[in-house]
Amino acid sequence: MEVKPQLSVYGRWLLVQRVMSGRPVAHVAAELGVSRATGYKWWRRWREEGAVGLYSRSSRPHTSPARTPAEIEQQVLALRRDRRLGPARIAGIVGLPPSTVHRILTRHAMPKLAWLDRPTGTPVRYERARPGELVHVDIKKLGRLRDGGGWRMHGRTSAIARSNKAAGSRGELVGHEFVHSAVDDHSRLAYCEVLPDEQATTAVAFFTRAHAFFAAYGITVQRVLTDNGACYRSRQWREQLAGAGIDHKRTRPYRPQTNGKVERLNRTLLTEWAYARPFASSNERTAALPQWLHTYNHHRAHTSLGGRPPISRVPVNDLPGHYN
Fold this sequence. Notes:
- The chain is of the alpha/beta class.
- The chain contains 13 helices and five strands.
- Strands 3-2-1-4-5 form a five-stranded mixed sheet, with helices on both faces.
- Helix 2 (25-31) packs across helix 3.
C-alpha cells in the first residue's frame, strides 16, 4: 500500500491558491502528491477558518478517561520538585508504573535530574561567561538543487520532478554542498558559509574567515569545540589553531549533544533558510544565506537569550552591519 506524503504549511497554501484559480481539488491534490481526501480536508479548513486552518492540529483526543487523576499527577510533580526522585522511585511511592510516571513528568515539561542543581532543584544551563571563551564549529551536508528547482517548487508529480527522479536513478546525481558553521557559546553569534566539500583545506580556510568575523566584533576566540570529523583531526587544522593560540577540544564519539549549540543552529538553518521557501537553484539558495544570517545575528529573537538577538550580547558599541 502506497503511503501518501504529508503537505507542509506552504504546500497547503499552494493547494488552496491553485484551487482558488478554478482548478479541481482532486487534480491539484494529485499534482502535490497527496490523496484526494487530504486535498479536500485542507480546502475545507481554508474555507471555514482561513489561513489559521492550514496549520497542523494536535492529535490529542478531546477526552482521556484513562488519564491519571490530577491530584496524583500533582503528587508526582511534588515528589520530583521537593525530593528530586526519578520515575522508578516515584512509582513505588504513588503506586503507578514507572512508564506512567515518566509520561507525567514529560507532559509537564519537568527537566531531567541531570539538568538540575541537586541542592536547589533549579535547572542548570551550561554557558560560557564571556564571548570567545568557546566557539562551536560543525558541518551540515545539504543536497544540491538542480537548475529550475525540485519537487518543492513544481510538485511531486510534475514533469520536472519525474525528470529529476529519472536522472537520479540513472546515476546522474547533482551531489551535495556543505554548510560550515561557527557559533559563539555565550552570545550565539554565528558565521556560516556554503562550501563545495568538507576537506581539511576547506575547513581551515573557513575557520580563518570565521576567526576574522568574530575579531571584527571584538571577540577573541580562546577555544574551539568540534566533532571527530576527519578535517578536524588533520594536521592542517591542528596547526591552524595552534598558530592562532586557540585550544581545540573534540566531542566524545557519538555524543553530538556536546556540540549542541551548533547542532541547534544547523536545525534552524534548515527550517528558516534552506527549506523556508522553494529555490530555483543551489546558487539562489546560497545567495539567500547572508541576508538570513544577518537577520539571525542582529534581529531574530533567540529564546535562550530571553527574546533578544545574539548581537545584544556582543560587548562592542560600533558593530559592523548593525544598522543595515
